[in-house]
Amino acid sequence: MSATVEETTELAPRLPADNLRRAVRIGICGLGTVGSGTVNVMARNGEEIAARCGRPVEIVQVGARRDNAACDTSKLNVTREIFDVADNPDVDILVELIGGTTVARELVLAAINNGKHIVTANKALIAEHGNELFAAAAEKGVTIAYEAAVAGGIPIIKSLREGLVGNRIQWLAGIINGTGNYILTEMRDKGRSFAEALAQAQELGYAEADPTFDVEGIDAAHKLVIMASLAFAMPLAFDKVYTEGISGVSSEDIRYADELGYRIKHLGIARRTEHGVELRVHPTLIPQRRLIANVNGVMNAVLVNGDAVGPTLYYGAGAGAEATASAVIADIVDVARTLEAKPDQRVPAAGVAEGSQAGPQVLPMDEVVTSYYLRISAHDKPGVMSQVAKICSDQGISIEALIQHEPAEGEALVPVVILTSRAKEARLREAVAQIEALDTVEGEVVRIRVETLG
Ligand SMILES: NC(=O)c1ccc[n+]([C@@H]2O[C@H](COP(=O)([O-])OP(=O)(O)OC[C@H]3O[C@@H](n4cnc5c(N)ncnc54)[C@H](OP(=O)(O)O)[C@@H]3O)[C@@H](O)[C@H]2O)c1
């Protein structure tokens, strides 16, 4: 039975009755990589998008400091002042694609205050200011959609919010930074050092001139915390994510991992435990037989384990102009479809009632339990292994696998590589401190966590 205009109008505080099928009017702020991709895909696929949306989607204004040769804005209304878009009464949805957290936060708050819905690709903004923004949006009865903020074109936010909604999510693990994954893939496939692979990534435009956000795991931590908030119905807790980058991963460790049947990937992991939620980003050994271990180059993938569905894997381009535009447009259509629904009848944007501090606690890293890969530089003398084994055993840690090669010609030190049983982080740290203090051991012990993801 179709609703009458009067009935529908009751559910449509934001669209006048005579306008129910009028175009949805969007304002795009930022005309860089994603902004220009969005303009191009909208122009190319406008008819399909309108058909799926049930009404045309019209770009009524673009806020950009300068033109971008990657897209044609000659027929669009362009302003050099992005706050004009937030104030434009003709804009229903403001699409924030400027990046950063300062001006972007002000822009989004101004638009929300003016009753506009928000679509953003900005993971830093959501991860760091999402709790505040969701609270402001809830107050104004508008939606914030952020599919493009995590894993670019992969619809992982929609999967968590909708497709997997019947599940209790046990854990999720993702390769969610393409630059890092490219570097680790180059190191493994071509035997390059970290520095060489990074330089190559910069040359190809995969890494920024300042690569800190990517290689030190901050970008992945932003994305992880967003996924965790949806998976575990908790507020965004960016400051509680344990974050370790890939700059310490060596080609040697990649080779030993191979020898043991593992790949080293930079993972964002969120896991529900009895005592709280683990939130951590770090290099991880994962068995080569897992599909996710074979996600290479700049591609992204997220493995989500729900109690009903079991493991599900989402794979695709995590960045790029049009791949990200795909997610931005999905959000625009999503918001447009819900314009007739009352705010409380929409799929919630955040994992918890907006602004609430409810939800599980984040587990301190010392309490996290994992297996470990350890590489010890030991003198080639008898008794080293029994000392190491005793230290581990005193901490309740057993040695599950070991590689020890002959020392290289003229070398006094031998690398001893160990895979441990699962142990609490604090115990492992104590064992490593004692191993490093041995006379027979030189320098720091390399440690990389191991996950079976089974
Ligand atoms: N690139 C990707 O593949 C990708 C993937 C997923 C998510 N994202 C996210 O998408 C957002 C945009 O990324 P991007 O790669 O498109 O960045 P970008 O290429 O640097 O584009 C950003 C654009 O915003 C403009 N801008 C910044 N501040 C402005 C201001 N105050 N007023 C007007 N214009 C302003 C910049 O103008 P100027 O050129 O004048 O500085 C630039 O054109 C970021 O939040 C990013 O994290 C990107």
Automatic annotation (TrEMBL):
NADPH binds at K123. Keywords: Amino-acid biosynthesis, Methionine biosynthesis, NADP, Oxidoreductase, Threonine biosynthesis. L-homoserine binds at E208. It catalyses: L-homoserine + NAD(+) = L-aspartate 4-semialdehyde + NADH + H(+). One of its GO terms (biological process) is threonine biosynthetic process. CDD domains: ACT_HSDH-Hom (cd04881). InterPro entries: ACT-like_dom_sf, ACT_dom, Asp/hSer_DH_NAD-bd, HDH, HDH_cat, HDH_CS, NAD(P)-bd_dom_sf. Its EC number is 1.1.1.3. Residues 373-450 form the ACT domain. The keyword Transit peptide does not apply. One of its GO terms (molecular function) is homoserine dehydrogenase activity. The active site is at K223. Pathway: Amino-acid biosynthesis; L-threonine biosynthesis; L-threonine from L-aspartate: step 3/5; Amino-acid biosynthesis; L-methionine biosynthesis via de novo pathway; L-homoserine from L-aspartate: step 3/3. Signal peptide: none annotated. The keyword NADP applies. NADP(+) binds at C29, G30, L31, G32, T33, V34, G35, S36. Belongs to the homoserine dehydrogenase family. This is Homoserine dehydrogenase.
